[in-house]
Amino acid sequence: RSDLLVLFGVALVVRVVAALSVGYPPYTDPAYYAMIAERLATGHGFSAPVIWSFLEVGGSLPADPMLPVPSNGHWMPLTSIVAAGSMLLFGANPAAGQIPMIGLGALLVPFTYLIGVELWNSRSVGLAAAVLALFAGPLLLMYPTVDNFAVFGTAGAAALYAATRAVRSPRPLGWLLVSGAAVGLASLARVDGLLLAVAPLVAAWLTRRNVIGRAAAALATAGVVLAPWLIRNLQVFGSALPSAGGHTLWITEYNQQFSISTQPTLESYLDWGWVNIIGSKLEAWVEISGRTALLMGGIFGLFFIAGLWLNRRRPELVPFTTYFVVMFVAMGAIFTFHASKGAFFHSAPAWLPFALPMAVAAVGPSCIALGRWWKFLARPATHRFVLVVGLLGAIGLSLISSVSLFRIWEVARERDVAAGEFFIAGGHTADVVLYADTPSLWQVSANPAVATPYDPYPVIEQVARAYGARWLVVALRQDATIDPLGLWAGPEAEDQDGNHADWLASEPSFEADGVRIWRILDPSEMAGTP
Fold first, then answer.
1. CA geometry: angle 435, 441, 442, nearest 5 deg
2. Which end of the chain has fewer CB atoms within 10 angstroms, the N or the C?
3. Helix H segments across 375-437?
4. CA geometry: angle at 314 spanning 312 and 315, to 5°?
5. With the C-alpha atoms ordered 374, 377, 381, 382, is the resulting torsion angle positive or negative?
6. How far apart are CA 509 and CA 515, in angstroms?
7. Which residues are CB-contacts of 433 (< 8 A; sequence separation ≥ 6)?
8. Which pLDDT value is given to residue 383?
9. Are strands 47-48 and 69-70 parallel, antiparallel or unpaired?
10. Per-residue confidence (pLDDT) for residue 114, from 0 to 100
11. Euclidean distance between CA atoms 403 and 390, whole angstroms
């Protein structure tokens, strides 16, 4: 018990320091979740004054374009709900929304220790795994943000833990119901939380008695938790999961999901060709394998693979290993272009509390096995050396990746602030803006804003006219010289169809390092232009 308290205290300090080092929502996701939380805390309900992507409104230009819009047409609500609760107590601002994320992110560290002690009967395994969980690559910086890392991780890890307890319990039904409820909560944080349902299903099967009844009870519990939100979506959007479909399943590149002029279909996906389809999925699996190693601290990624083999006959671990395999396969096969852009990182906090102690526990047996060829590795002192050096390397890897990520965030933040200050200084905060990262701009200037679609320029102009947008903000990524749409060049820009952005003013109204703001011409001005 003292170990748990000490680990939680240390983790809490580390999470607070990480939160203080990033005193703003650093990218689109936390900016959006914090914005919706603020709207909830101030009585505006589930509504958004910006459109972060047209996925939010059905993947096309609505027949009746308007702002604000009903929120969470694409992303799930639990993160904002949790943050809003904190904002009601401490003020409607992103910093208040971070408080529960700090607590939940810290809680995962002693929870990882607990799993190590319970399942591997070793305090040293638990402590080493807790150290890895404390850092976990770039999650060191990500956990305290108003994003779904901590919320999904807590609910997802609870679902897996309850499933393992069900396998070991003489009375498994209670644990299965807890696992089902946690699956529902995790799915309210991320829609791929539905994959966690395999854990209680496998656990029910392993109990060997009343399998169908117990599995149905677990799924029903998850359904009860999810039902209010799904009913809300049906009432508001006409669909339980309104953004599920072609823009997720049948895209052939990541940015294609942000187009409103094309609708990806199975037919168009198959036309891409089997070589491209299979190649893209293999590439995704290779990339997320590397990310697994990063999250686990480098060498422990290899020991995790060994641990999966060494523990293959332990029934209580089957719910976890089944989930991990299903999730890993789904990330490459279904979420091919989303996995490498963040989806895999977002899923990791649920499975790391099991994977990390499994990897640590495999250090000794793996070295002993390799000791058949190199006797040095069979010595217990060598095992301790490998463990300590591995932990130091994991800490270093986490710090390096976190610093690199922080620099990217800082550059983006500077450009958001520069744009926002232009609108504030000029009294333009009520003007509608086209921008790629509308929630981040809203956090600075509270401008109503619409995402710039990934489309030819005439379509972008159509969106601007539909929403009465007056400004276009173009911000470059770190070290980039042009944006993905080429609009950095303003009216001189030319899209892939040869169209020019002639609906933009001849010169930017504002320019700073990596950001330009272009005024969108009225149709009358364009008509008067020779």
1. 115
2. C
3. 380-425
4. 110
5. positive
6. 11
7. 423, 441, 447, 448, 449, 450, 469, 470, 471, 472, 473
8. 87
9. antiparallel
10. 97
11. 20
Encoded amino acid at 60, one letter? S
152: its two tokens: 């999904």
Backbone angles phi, psi at 266, to 5 degrees: -60, -40
Length of the chain: 530
Query: Residue 263's pLDDT is what?
Result: 85
Is 13 buried (19+), middle (13-18) or exposed (0-12) by CB count in 10 A? exposed
132 CB-near residues (< 8 Å, 6+ apart): 112, 296, 297, 300, 352, 356, 359, 360, 391, 394
Residue-by-residue DSSP string for 441-486: HHHHH---EEEPPSS-HHHHHHHHHHHTEEEEEEEPPTT-SS-TT-
Report, in this order, helix, strand and coil percent for the chain, each rounded to 5.
65, 5, 25
The alpha carbons of the chain give a radius of gyration, in whole angstroms, of: 25
Q: Give, in order, the Cα–Cα distances in Å from 10 to each of 13, 103, 126, 130, 331.
A: 5, 12, 15, 11, 33
pTM more than 0.90: yes
- The structure tokens 């930017």 sit at 508
Q: Nearest Cα to 73, choosing from 240, 243, 204, 229?
A: 243
232: its two tokens: 């809300």
3-state SS record for 229-270: HHHHHHHHHCCCCCCCCHHHHCCCCHHHHHCCCCCCCHHHHH
As given in the structure block, the two tokens for residue 88 are 């009601």
In order of 137, 248, 322, the CA distances from 339 in angstroms are 16, 11, 19
Exposure b/e, 250-267, CB count within 10 A at least 16 = b: bbbeeebbbbbeeebeee
Task: Supply the pLDDT for residue 341.
Answer: 86
Chunked mean pLDDT (size 10), the chain, 530 residues: 94 97 95 98 97 93 94 96 97 96 98 97 96 96 97 98 95 96 98 96 94 96 97 94 77 91 90 95 95 95 96 96 97 91 94 98 91 82 91 96 96 96 97 97 97 96 96 94 94 93 95 96 72
Tokens of 517: 């703001």
The answer to whether the peptide bond before residue 68 is cis (omega within 30 degrees of 0) is yes
The helix or strand, by DSSP H or E, that contains position 216, with its residue range, turns out to be helix 211-237
- What is the spatial distance between Cα 85 and Cα 192, in angstroms, rounded to a whole number? 24
Q: Which helix (H) or strand (E) holds 516?
A: strand 515-519
Q: How distant, in Å, are the alpha carbons of 127, 295, 327, 344, 519 from that of 302?
A: 19, 12, 18, 18, 53
pLDDT of residue 530: 42
